[in-house]
Amino acid sequence: MPNRNKHEQFDVFLADKGILLPDGRYGEVHDIMDKGTKIYGSFHRKYDPVHEEKGLRAWILFKYSTIGQDRATDWLRAGLGHICLDEMYSRFKGKKSWDKIFNSAYRSMAQRSWDRSYFKPR
User: pTM score, two decimals?
Assistant: First the structure.
């Protein structure tokens, strides 16, 4: 799993591409995404429900009344980007540069249409 600094750098990368809002307010998303490491260790991506789109959306719905629509969509995209970066890091760690890992994670987001995801409260 990439460290927090790499996730924050990827957020800037996504903001530069217009995927995320440029204000950098994604810290709470990364906190919840990494919280499972204390419970599940290195397997948190497999067992932590917030590390999948459905679980991430459920957590954002819980926060929706205080964060609003724009922030909810932004957090959804930041969380989905977090998932993609974790996957690409696991696949390419030590084999590719961070620039290439970031680009691979971005392409993974685009292939899943997660770069255009929109949060819809139910």
Answer: 0.91
